[in-house]
Amino acid sequence: MTAHSSPARPVLLGQNQYGKAENRVVRITRDGTTHHIKDLNVSVALSGDMDDVHYSGSNANVLPTDTTKNTVFAFAKEHGIESAEQFGIHLARHFVTSQEPIHRARIRIEEYAWERVEGTGADGEEIKHSFVRQGQETRLTQITFDGERWEVVSGLKDLVVLNSTNSEFWGYVKDKYTTLKETHDRILATEVSARWRFGWTDGEQPAPDWNESYEQTKRHMLRAFAETYSLSLQQTLYEMGARIIENRDEIDEVRFSLPNKHHFLVDLEPFGLKNDTADGAVYLAADRPYGLIEATVLRDGSEARIPADLTNL
Amino acid sequence: MTAHSSPARPVLLGQNQYGKAENRVVRITRDGTTHHIKDLNVSVALSGDMDDVHYSGSNANVLPTDTTKNTVFAFAKEHGIESAEQFGIHLARHFVTSQEPIHRARIRIEEYAWERVEGTGADGEEIKHSFVRQGQETRLTQITFDGERWEVVSGLKDLVVLNSTNSEFWGYVKDKYTTLKETHDRILATEVSARWRFGWTDGEQPAPDWNESYEQTKRHMLRAFAETYSLSLQQTLYEMGARIIENRDEIDEVRFSLPNKHHFLVDLEPFGLKNDTADGAVYLAADRPYGLIEATVLRDGSEARIPADLTNL
Amino acid sequence: MTAHSSPARPVLLGQNQYGKAENRVVRITRDGTTHHIKDLNVSVALSGDMDDVHYSGSNANVLPTDTTKNTVFAFAKEHGIESAEQFGIHLARHFVTSQEPIHRARIRIEEYAWERVEGTGADGEEIKHSFVRQGQETRLTQITFDGERWEVVSGLKDLVVLNSTNSEFWGYVKDKYTTLKETHDRILATEVSARWRFGWTDGEQPAPDWNESYEQTKRHMLRAFAETYSLSLQQTLYEMGARIIENRDEIDEVRFSLPNKHHFLVDLEPFGLKNDTADGAVYLAADRPYGLIEATVLRDGSEARIPADLTNL
Amino acid sequence: MTAHSSPARPVLLGQNQYGKAENRVVRITRDGTTHHIKDLNVSVALSGDMDDVHYSGSNANVLPTDTTKNTVFAFAKEHGIESAEQFGIHLARHFVTSQEPIHRARIRIEEYAWERVEGTGADGEEIKHSFVRQGQETRLTQITFDGERWEVVSGLKDLVVLNSTNSEFWGYVKDKYTTLKETHDRILATEVSARWRFGWTDGEQPAPDWNESYEQTKRHMLRAFAETYSLSLQQTLYEMGARIIENRDEIDEVRFSLPNKHHFLVDLEPFGLKNDTADGAVYLAADRPYGLIEATVLRDGSEARIPADLTNL
C-alpha cells in the first residue's frame, strides 16, 4: 500500500476503502409450490484511485455507495445466490472490472440459515413455502479481488459449544498473583468465531463446492471439539484447526477467536450440600471477564494471511 | 394492592418487589457417561411487608437478594431441574412459605436449549457429554405464588418465521396519509414473542407435563403460522392463538407480540429487470420502522390476566 | 376490556393493538444559520373495533401501519416538535378523532439529546449547525388517549449513577442460604429506569411545560440519589420518588426499576495488599446476576396506574 | 511471525495470543470527602513461547488468564490509574519482564467517563462522592510491548455527530445501477470510531500527557467535523485526520471507520407538504444499509501500522 501526499499539507492518505455495508438481501426462488430462501447481509468495500475525494471532495472517481447497494439487489435477481461465496465473487468481479478507478473490492457476507416449517395446505398438499430461522451460527464469507488474484475467507460466528467433562487445567505457571486452583474435571465451553482461507486464488481454476465445504468444515470442527480430551483450550483450538486442515484440502489456514465461557462450580458447602462434578454439578455461567484464546492454524507451506484480530477486545 | 402512607410525608409507597435477577445456572446430570444439561437464567422478585425498608432503610424484613441467588443454585442441586416450570415452583413456594414477611414470589426463567454434538471417544464409544446450543427460540416461564394460588405463564421469544407466499394485504382504510399499494402476494415474516397462561392454579391438583406442553404448543403455533392463508398479520396471530387454545386444554390464554418484519420487493425496473413475486423475487429485509401487532387470545370463559405489554416499544 | 367471541369457535379475542413501531424521525429547524434538532423514535399503537381483522382478515377497519408511519413524518413537518409529549398528543388526537373504528391511541416516544459542537465557519462566524449526541439518558414519554381522557407518562432510561460512599447494608434477615457479609461502606450504583405520570388528563385544561418538567424532575431525582445516606437501595428509590412528588405538583406517580449494579470489593490480601474502602478501593464491576429493586411512589390520594413491569426480567 | 511445525502432523501453528478479556475494574480514590473515579474495561493478550500448550496441552509456560485478571485488579491498587494508557503500560511491562516465556503483551482498555452529581450533604457541605456516567463516547487505548519497543494506539468509539447543512454530494460516477439524485444540501452524520497512534515507542523517553492529548485530539476532531464544508464524507474524514496530525505532534497516524448515518429527506408531497432543507426539514434516520468510509491519515514520513479493520463488517 502506498500513501499519497496531499497537495497542500504534510499529511498523507493511507489505506482507504468505502462502500455500502449491511445490505439485507433476501432471495426467494420458486420451483412450483416449493420455495427456497437465501438470506444474506452483504457489505461492499472498494479501494482504488481515491485520493481526490479525500483531498478535495471531488467525486469524479466515486461510484456512490447507493449504487453498490443497487448492484447487490440487482445481482441477486440477475445471477441468483447459489452460495454466499459465489455471490460475492460475482459482485467483486463486477466492481473491479467495470470501474476503472476501482482496483480492489472486498465483499463480506453474513448468511442466516432457515429450515422448513411443517404444515399441510388447504389442498391437502405439504406446505413448502414456510420457514423458521435456525438461529444457530451465522455463516460468514469475505471475497477479495484485485483484478488478478482472488482471496476467499469463509467462517462462522456465534456457535456456542460445551463439553461437560474431559477437560482439565493444571500444571500452569504460578506467580505471586496466582490464586487459581487446579482442576481435573471442568466444563469447557466457548462461542466459536472462526475464519478459514481457501487455497483457490486463480479465477481460471475450478472453485470449490462452497456449500459442501462449509457443511463439512463445520462438522469436522464440531467433532474435533467433542472428541478432544482437553488439557487447555489452546489444545482444543489447535485440534479443531488441524482437523480442518487435514480433512479439507481446499483450506490452507484457519483463525480462531475462542472466548473461554467460564462455568464456575458453585460452592454449596455453606448449605450442607456437596457439589461434585462426578455426581453432576451446578455451575454459575459467568459473563465477564473471560479468557480469550486466539490462534492461527496453517497448512505446512502456506502463508498466514488472515488478520489476527477477529474481535475488538 | 394497597398503598401505605409514609410516617412523615404525604407520599405513599405502591407496588414493590425485589430480588436477584439473571442468575445464570447450569445443571449437569450424569447417567454414566451420558450427560444431560439444563441452562437457565433465573430472576427472583419478592413482595410483602416491605414498607420499612423503603421509608427508613430498616432491612429487618429483607432477605438479601444475595440469599435469593444462593437459593437458586442450592435448589438446582437439591431438587434438580426437571423443567423450568417445576424449578420455578420449588423456588416460589420456598420464599413464600419460609419467610413470614414475604407474601408473594414471582420467578422468571429463560431457558436455552442444547443438542448433542456427535463424536467418538478414544475408547470407541459414542460421546455423550458434548453439546451445541440450538440458538433458535428462548423458552420462557413465569411462576407467581401468593401462598394460595399459583399462576404459570410460559412462552417463548426470538422465534423468527417467514412465509414466502400465501399472504395478501388489501381492502384497508385509505386516508390522506395513505400511500401504500395493495398486494396480493407478499412475504409475511415475524419474530414471535408469545406467552401462554395455564389453567393450573391449585397446588393440590396435578400439574401439566410442562416439557411436553411446551413442545406441543410450539408445534401447533408453527403449523398454524404455516397453514394460514393470511389476509393480515392479525388474522395469522389469531389463528396461532386459537390453535393453541383448541389443542392444548391446559392453556387458557395466549398473548402475542408480533413485529411485522417487512420484506420490501425491490424495484429493479431502473436496471431493466423484472422482480415479480411469481417468479421468485428479491426483497430488502428492513429493520425499522416495523408494524407491531399485539393481541390476546382467550379460552371462552377465561379471564385475561397476561399484561398487554411484552415489549417496551 | 371486553373479549369478543369468534363467529365459529369457542376462542375469544382479548386486548389488541397495532401500529408502526420505531419511526426514527429527525426534525431540523432553521433560524437563519442557527439550526435546532429534535431526534425521536416514535411508536404508534391503535385499538378499537378490530374484531374482523383478527377473525376473517378483513381490513375494512384497518388504517395501515404504513399510514401511521406517514402521519408521524407529516406531523413533524406540519406541527413541529416542541416537545415529545406535545408531539405525541397531536398524533394520538389525530388517530382517535379522524378514524371512527379507532377508539384508543397510545404513542410512545424515545428522545435522544444533542448538544452543539463548537466551531468557526469560513466566514468567521460561529457555527450553529453542528451537533454531537449527548449519549447520557434516553428521555421517554407515552401518551394515551381514548377520546376523552389523556394519560401522559414520561420518564427516562439508561441513566447510570454511582455513590462511592454513604451506603450501608446490614441488619437483614439471615436464613440457611445467607452468606453475605454486612457492610457499612459500599458503592451504590444503578442504571435508572423511571416513569412518572402527570396529573393532567383533561385536554381542556392547560398542560404542563413538558420540557421544563423533564429537566427539573431529572434534577430532583439525581440530587435525591446523591444526598440520601442509604441503608438500602429501596430507601434511595423511595427518596428519589418522594422528592419528585414533593417538588413537582404536576406529577402524581413515579415507578422505578433499579438494578443494583454490584461493585464488589476485590480481595487483594493474597497479594499482600490492603483494599479498604476508607483508603479508596478497587472494585470489580459485575454484570449478572444483579439485585433488581422496583417500586411505585405515589402522591397521597392518587391511584397507581403505571404497570409494575418496566423490564421483562 | 514464524509458524512452528507440530511434532506429528503437517499442520503449523501461526500467530497466537491469550489472556483475560473485559476485566471491569473501578478504582475510587479519596481526597478527604472528595472522591474520584476511574472506570475501565481491561483486556489482556499475551504471546510468546506457546507451542506446547497448543500441540500437547502442556501448560508449563502458561500464566493462567485468571492470574492476568488478578494482576489487573492488584495493579489498580498498587499503581493507581492515572490514565488508561499509563495503566496499560504498567501491565504490559509486568507481563513481558516477569515471565520468560511471554515475549509480547497487548493491553486493550475501554474507559467510561463520569461527571459529578450536584448535591448538599446533611452537614451542609457539597457532596463530592456522587457521579453520573457521561455516556457519550467510549475512550480506548491499546498498549503493545515486545520487551523493547512500545506502541500506543488510543482512540474512541460511539461518538455520534451530525451537521444539518454544509454537506453536498454530486459529480459522482453514474453507471447502469445508479439511481441516486445529486444533492447540494444534506445532513451529514456519522458515529465516529477512531484510533490514533503515538510516535512514542521508547520507554526511556518521556511519554506524552495522555489525558491532555485525549481531550485535545477529541476537540480538534470535533471542530474539524463542524468546520468542514463537505463534498463527501471522505473529505470530512481526511480533514478530521489532518487536523489531528497538524495539531498534535505526539500523533503520527489516525485511522477512521465512519458509517454514513443516512438521514433521508422524507417525501411529503403526497400529503400536500413541502419538505425543503432550506426551511428546516424532516428526515428519516435509517439503520441499514449504510455507507461505510474508512481511511488512514498519516504524518509525512510515518509508517502505517494501525490495521485496516476496526469493524467486522
TrEMBL record, chains A, B, C, D:
Pfam families: Uricase. Gene3D superfamilies: Urate Oxidase (3.10.270.10). Keywords: Oxidoreductase, Purine metabolism. It comes from the Bacteria. Pathway: Purine metabolism; urate degradation; (S)-allantoin from urate: step 1/3. It catalyses: urate + O2 + H2O = 5-hydroxyisourate + H2O2. Belongs to the uricase family. Catalyzes the oxidation of uric acid to 5-hydroxyisourate, which is further processed to form (S)-allantoin. This is Uricase. It comes from Streptomyces nigra. The lineage of its organism: Bacteria, Bacillati, Actinomycetota, Actinomycetes, Kitasatosporales. The gene is pucL.
